[in-house]
Predict the structure.
Amino acid sequence: MKDVADHLGVSRQLVSLVLRDLPGASEETRRRVRAAAEELGYHPDDSARVLRGHRSRRLGVLFTMREPFEVDLVEELFAGAAERGYALVLGPLSAARSQRTVLAELLGQRIEGLLVLAAEGGSATIDDLPGIPLVQLGGPRALETADDVRVDDTAGIDLLVEHLAGLGHRAITHVSGGDGPNARERRLAYEAAMERRGLALDVVPAAFTEDAGARAAQDLLARKRLPSAILAANDRCAAGVLGTLVRAGVRVPADVSVAGFDDSSIARLPYTQMTTVRHDPARLAGAALDAIVRRIDDPDATTVRHLEPPLLIVRASTGPALAR
Amino acid sequence: MKDVADHLGVSRQLVSLVLRDLPGASEETRRRVRAAAEELGYHPDDSARVLRGHRSRRLGVLFTMREPFEVDLVEELFAGAAERGYALVLGPLSAARSQRTVLAELLGQRIEGLLVLAAEGGSATIDDLPGIPLVQLGGPRALETADDVRVDDTAGIDLLVEHLAGLGHRAITHVSGGDGPNARERRLAYEAAMERRGLALDVVPAAFTEDAGARAAQDLLARKRLPSAILAANDRCAAGVLGTLVRAGVRVPADVSVAGFDDSSIARLPYTQMTTVRHDPARLAGAALDAIVRRIDDPDATTVRHLEPPLLIVRASTGPALAR
DNA sequence: CTGAAAGCGCTTACAG
DNA sequence: CTGAAAGCGCTTACAG
């Protein structure tokens, strides 16, 4: 910073002012300072800024890079955090990097709040968080006291059952998410929606992965008769079901309709064209950021529970039921 | 740190010593210090450490979270960097975050070296890097002077053509990666391998995505006659080809064999079972880290060019050619 | 706008 | 092992 200041013959705090967009410098001076910083390849040292300022203006994000929908959310969080004057510190979880390890790294970075997306990570050990605010974005609702932003699972499943029943389907099987996050809510919503219509329940336990969907489809293929429609716990699972059925010579949707949940990129592929339910990652990210900023500003604010309404997306993987 | 020291009645630098695993404290003392740090929920401030030390021991990574193989590499980089005493600072690229923006963030974190994975990002503007070492890990070879670690594309394509020709295939179509990174190398390798065997070339330009593979498959389906085998530029593209063919009623591999490149998770799905070529992400990550650490320690070291040999993985998407 | 000063939480070096 | 000191690159507050 001194180099930039000396280069222009101005003071260091003038440079500091300009680069932080604070008032106290003319337009002309700002332009010159910015040009000089650019020319000298100067980048302010984040460590020094954080160390000196009483606030880091950093938010930590616990998530899984392998989950496409979590990556969608993180992209939106980047944009939303910047708008609100915060930087994001990524804490990607994996088999080799436990929640504990990643959390220690984030705390070493002096984050002011934590966004927990990590569906699989579970928030089990998160209670030893040293008093910084935490917002759960989807995933298991581990902390009753934390702010919480998530999709309305029940409404989403209702939309899908309504859609399938409207197409004349009565034998609708749910390939569930097993023990996964939100799996229970979705299964219960399926059961309630079916019972409300007087339709028989059929649940095949699986998980939120293509592999689990493929295994469930094999189980269904081994039966005397396939269901008329299959409602999978999420898109990845639905893709496993669909891929396996198609390779076994079953026509989708002529023989069986298949629907997913999430509207992730996998649902939009030309050979998938999956009917599903969309929840807008930008809206979810915005709600989560609003919640955490609010909590940082006022630790005693009342707890937020945001339920995002889903939207039905009808594509080519569902069609009218066969009369039989 | 002072709190921890006072809690035990020891000095601050004793605590500092122990937490950095330096010599100068007894085992018993180390145990007590660690226990007290744990109890008080103390996490050393990374900003202070970096600011004070003359080295950050941080490495930046430019990559794309949506590319499964890049995520595989990043996971391995985390482990490898820790072994070598470095921390990773992630710089995920996306439509909303340009290379310039992300690079500025990484430089603000005082990274000592940069690993560029970002296949799509291109290293176009990277020449304005202020003198920190850069290693390219796959992707376009933008900087002739930089260390470079990548898969041996030519050897990989050779293995696949050899495999298909050995199964009796003669009409082998290459669905290419178009303008994508490494696409040209792979296409040239295909052409050379085919010509060496006296086989006719057939290249359908596409890209490294499922969508592009699906479009290419539609083009092939519109022809009077399908090729006997299809060699796609990568697994994602091959999955698009395979998914589209299967939905059109083509049997794989009975009617057409399909092969990919990368051995990403998509190739291992039960309804894909793709023959492909594997390059070990752990080995690639290790080579890239060795290169960057070497370059940090000795900026004048000779340029590294690491070509990782690939391994043929035969699965169920390829089979004997039909006699016709 | 400038100039001089303090201080964030550490690490480093040194005398004891 | 302790104690006292310096300093990393900034931000903040203040008198001019």
Remarks:
- The first strand of chain B starts at residue 58 and ends at 63.
- The longest helix of chain B spans residues 281-297.
